[in-house]
Amino acid sequence: MDNKKHQYILAIETSCDETAVAIIKDGKEIVANVVASQIESHKRFGGVVPEIASRHHVEEITFVLEEALKQAEMTVEEMDAITVTEGPGLVGALLIGVNAAKALAFAHDKPLIGVHHIAGHIYANRLVKEFSFPLLALVVSGGHTELILMREHGKFEVIGETRDDAAGEAYDKVARTLGLSYPGGPQIDKLAAQGNETIDLPRAWLEEGSYDFSFSGLKSAVINTIHNATQRGEELKKEDLAASFQASVVEVLTEKTYQAAKEFDVKQVIVAGGVAANKGLREKLQEKFMSESIDLAIPPLSLCTDNAAMIGAAGSIAYDQGHRAGWDLNANPGLDLERYGERDKN
Amino acid sequence: MNILAIDTSNETMGIAIYQDNKITAEYISNNKNKHSIRLMPAIVQLMRDVDLTPKELTKIVVAKGPGSYTGVRIGLSTAKTMAWTLNIPVVGISSLETLALQARELGYAICPFFDARRGLVYTGLFQRAEDGLLTTVEEKNVLFEDWLEQLKDVNHKVVFLSPDIDQYRDLIIEILGDNAIIPEEIYHTARPSLLAVYGRYKEADNIHNLTPNYLRLVEAEAKWLEAQRTAKVENE
Ligand SMILES: [Zn+2]
């Protein structure tokens, strides 16, 4: 008989435009996972409007909490801890989750734990497959492009990051230039699959041995290409432009991830964040790591985009490691990942 | 009866506990910074001071704006979540009404207001009703000067209450003259104790549907609606 008491974590995520609540069992199993997306509301503005995101969060939060507990058939009383994204993200949006989490923790006398959003994206993978250390995580989303090395649970070394635009940001900007509606990333991915890489676009490798990224040059090159074609009265095939742009992004991401995986001799490579849903990127990475003994882990699409299950998974480890937040927990829009991993236990 | 009242909607952060016809604890600070950091520690401290546990609370009253968008949401997300999880009623009261309570006994019309920049204010007009509650005549986001001209035409005495009173004192007197009543300093910030007492008599809101009283659209949304309207007119 299984006498061990299970651990249940309630997690809240409101860092951008999804109001999400999840309940996670023993750090690895999803008991409930509810995401209220605001994408339809922000579509009309061509991007996320922070004040509108915050307004939606405060309208949705108790609905989503109720739905998650209903799905789990559990009560807050049965939780071991309340975890919440404390940053990075939009400050006004983060504040809704943080204050709701404090209210829950106080009302039921439960431990309160702040979680780093990117730690969450990485830990989304632990809901699918156990970690093997050392591991390398490629985090790609609308706000992030980072290579993170983990030698143990809860500790993060950023070995590469973007110097300008995040990959997802470049996707959205190029999509806008091509007249595609928001969010542009998935649409470029779809178009790229129908086109050919016929246009020569730059790859920003940066200095020898650097794992940093840069996508602003590529973005400008795409805009120039369109501009020049228009001036000459030529019609560019959108599919080909998308394919060429995507090829450049994917090649740099894949190659740098591969080099870093080799250098640090990792056992596992994890791909995380919204752009991990990109088919072109998934295929290229699978191709690259196929013949390697390194385990490549990419979560299912539903766990790539923002959700609270990932915050619960990362929160579970933080709980086990003894991290506890005080009642003065604040939203921290610029929270640093390495420092989060080194925060003092109290 | 154990009522917790919360107001983080403007510069004042206020918390009060009302137990069996008596205010047993009250906290006020007039420093707009970091309501999000300070709110929960202050609630915890106040509850401890009166030896009250969250599960003993019977109602939560919250000031729902207008005011600082972020401030209003800090109070509301705390109040809504706590009321929801404790399964107790929550009442949202306009922050203008909360401020107007300070002059409830004077018998005049009351005009509370908060500066909303560029000559605009969040304001309203309140009147004391038979039962002692306030009746909201109006609430809006308006150019203060236009609003004062409207009040002048009514030709009644009006009590003005605002944490931003000094900024507008001269303008009020210039337009309303002897009809303007401006109480002394202490009355221009909202009291959470009044919010708690008053909330006792107010009907509970539906927790999920309780939303901030912004009195103003987000700029992007206002522009979008305007564009829709223009497009519609052009199509007709
Ligand atoms: Zn994210």
From TrEMBL, chain A:
Domain Gcp-like span(s) in chain numbering = 29-312
Q: Which reaction does it catalyse?
A: L-threonylcarbamoyladenylate + adenosine(37) in tRNA = N(6)-L-threonylcarbamoyladenosine(37) in tRNA + AMP + H(+)
Keyword Repeat applies: no
Q: What class of enzyme is it?
A: transferase
Q: Entry's InterPro entries? A: ATPase_NBD, Gcp-like_dom, KAE1/TsaD, Peptidase_M22_CS, TsaD
List residues binding Fe cation. Answer: H117, H121, D306
Q: Which Gene3D superfamilies match?
A: 3.30.420.40
> Which compartments does it reside in?
Cytoplasm
Query: What is a biological process (GO) this protein takes part in?
Result: tRNA threonylcarbamoyladenosine modification
What EC number(s) does the entry state? 2.3.1.234
User: How is the cofactor bound, in the record's words?
Assistant: Binds 1 Fe(2+) ion per subunit.
Q: Where are the transmembrane segments?
A: none
Q: Which CDD domains match?
A: ASKHA_NBD_TsaD_bac
Q: Which GO terms describe its molecular function?
A: DNA binding; endonuclease activity; iron ion binding; tRNA N(6)-L-threonylcarbamoyladenine synthase activity
Name the domain of life.
Bacteria
UniProt GO cellular component terms: cytoplasm
Tell me the keywords, alphabetical order: Acyltransferase, Cytoplasm, DNA-binding, Endonuclease, Hydrolase, Iron, Metal-binding, Nuclease, Transferase, tRNA processing
Names of the cofactor(s): Fe(2+)
Q: Does the keyword Phosphoprotein apply?
A: no
Q: Which of this chain's residues are annotated to bind substrate? A: V139, V140, S141, G142, G143, D172, G185, D189, N278
Q: What protein family is recorded?
A: Belongs to the KAE1 / TsaD family.
Q: What task does this protein carry out?
A: Required for the formation of a threonylcarbamoyl group on adenosine at position 37 (t(6)A37) in tRNAs that read codons beginning with adenine. Is involved in the transfer of the threonylcarbamoyl moiety of threonylcarbamoyl-AMP (TC-AMP) to the N6 group of A37, together with TsaE and TsaB. TsaD likely plays a direct catalytic role in this reaction.
**Protein's recorded name:** tRNA N6-adenosine threonylcarbamoyltransferase
Q: Which gene encodes it?
A: tsaD
Automatic annotation (TrEMBL), chain B:
UniProt xrefs under CDD domains: ASKHA_NBD_TsaB
At the top level, the lineage of the source is Bacteria
Tell me one GO biological process term.
Answer: tRNA threonylcarbamoyladenosine modification
Q: Name one GO cellular component term.
A: cytosol
Signal peptide span per the entry? none
Domain Gcp-like, which positions? 25-197
Q: Which PANTHER family match?
A: TRNA N6-ADENOSINE THREONYLCARBAMOYLTRANSFERASE, TRNA THREONYLCARBAMOYLADENOSINE BIOSYNTHESIS PROTEIN TSAB
Q: What protein does this entry describe?
A: tRNA threonylcarbamoyladenosine biosynthesis protein TsaB
Classification lineage: Bacteria, Bacillati, Bacillota, Bacilli, Bacillales
